[in-house]
THAP-type domain-containing protein (Parnassius mnemosyne), 695 residues
Amino acid sequence: MVSCSVPGCDSSKRNNPQHYSFHQFPINPESREKWLRMLNRPHWTPHKYTTICSKHFHPHCFSVTIGQKRRKLRSGSVPTISMPVEIPLPHLSIGSAGKNDLFRHTKTNKHVNSSPGGSSSQTLLTDLISNKNLEPVKRGEILLAAFIAEHNIPMNIMEHLPQLIKNMCPDSQIAKSISCDRTKTTAIVKNVTGITAKQMTIEKLQKLKFSLIVDESTDRGCVKHLCIVARFFERKVEDAFVCLIPLEEANAEKLHKHIKNFLSDNNIPMENLIGFAADGANTMMGQHNSLSSRLVAENPHLFVLKCVCHSFHLCASYACLKLSREPETLIRDIYNYFNNSPKRIGILKEFQQFLDLKPHKILHPAQTRWLSLRAAVCRILEQYGALKLYFTETALTDHLNADSILFRLKNPYNKLYLEFLEFSLEIFNNMNKLMQSERPQIHKMHENMVTVFKTLLECYMDDGYVSRTEVSLIQIDNPRHYKPIDDLYLGAKVSASLVSTTLHQEDIKAFKLKCLDFFIEGAKQVKKRYNFSNDVFKQMQFLDPQAVKSRRIDSLVTLAVKFPNLISRDELQQLDTEWRFLRNNKDLAPDDSQDLESYWYKVTAARDPANYSNQLYPTLSKFVFAILSLPHSSAAVERIFSSINLIKTKQRNRLNTDTIEGLLHTKQLIGGAKPCYSLEVDNKLLSKFNKNMYS
């Protein structure tokens, strides 16, 4: 039976001599919240048939009246329950009146007779009284949404968390007023914190030089996305998440169109784009009809970088193909044997304790994870003794799998290969780790590439030839420059094992030849993927503060002419003049421990003594900021996809792209190293906290 939900009201359709009409609660959350506040039941949830009768509305709330039975409410009307009022009321003085006095006044004939009419909407006195208390409540709800975003917690938890806080803090007015379910939390994440962070990034891209780092991937929900990250310099180098674009097709034409549309829709000048980085896929980096080739066609001076991390991972993968496949197969079989078997892991722990080994798990050598193979190799070597004991016992009952693994564990050549991989893969992994850094590494790239390349060459080539030959001219596959087979450097563990081994010399020679093939293939792949004769990266060493201090670089012109989009020909002399003055400025001499970003920000902040409002090194600062905005890898976008994997799990696989984007932007707004409770809720966020956030 339809009845009025106002406490104390007995009106119903069955007993309705006054012919009241009954009106359902509005769908709009903002309007519904006002109705509930007037009922003094802010946390009660009405169902779709819950109504309030017409006697609790001011007559002017109705736009249609048919007799006394049917009435139509105006949009935005609110029940006044105990006080059908509109304000301001010129006859009412509230100089010494309190809230209860105001409510009592609404009952008087003087107030009822003096209420102005003709308005289609009402301003509620209770709204004005409580408005001053809404801001702390909004701050609390925004912080709760930030908590959900930072810790990758399901939105459904907000059905209980606010009520839990109220029960924990019954004396807190803010806690009592928090009303933030999953719908409201999602709206805050998308259209308050998320959109604010996105707008802040877009505003920076509109005025600063930047590089784009992009990649495409498919999430758990089988939705393919294009992820865009921007790198720019503002006080320090920042890698800012820009947007996540759902894709139907991932060809170069569609990717280029999406990027162009994003830049134009947000009024970001194309000339501000100075760099581009992605993985080595043909769609991204192909010579013809790729995303990079289309961008270069529009911007001929665009700096394009194929990701060094992807490249070194591929170098190691191709080199490993030259070795016997048995050691890698052994690692995978051991992992699969223990995976998802608590009983087997428990028995292995007993052997680990017997040999006084740490009870570490066996790792999976994933092909697509950059550093996983060496970590898996190291773990097998660490647990080699325990594994042999385990499979020796298990092989008595498991004659198929365990016996096969035990046979390979007892093969001394497999252990030699694992010890060799532990040493050799570290050469590639060290470079990979360095290039995954979030801090600028572009000025160190050439020096580090040369170091890694020569370290690899010196394992199998004559040291004198490597040291006296220009690195780009070294003949890496010329046997005339190879070391004798017995002088190959295969790592300390391999050398120690070969000294104490009783293996046949022919077998040892075959093992060493396999290792030689590994070195040659690895060197070929490095040289194929990095141009050692290109001076651009070498000349970027001027960014190192110690290069300023050492005065070893006289001029920046040879580098600047390669970036005409950053420095015009007329500015070249000014650039060199400022550089040469900086080298002799003792006040700006870098400390030995000073990092690159803080030093160049200090140079930028230096003022001209003749006119303190002007920079001392304006042209040099502009050039340095632009160079620091160039990418050294695409690791930043890979980190975003790692975050997406944490956000969109098997249990949360229905999140839409705009919600995922809002969560990522909210994380960025909080700050990577800062906790969610430190988020500063300013007026910019509060201004977006309104009914429009649900749209």
In short: Residues 125-150 form the longest helix (26 residues).
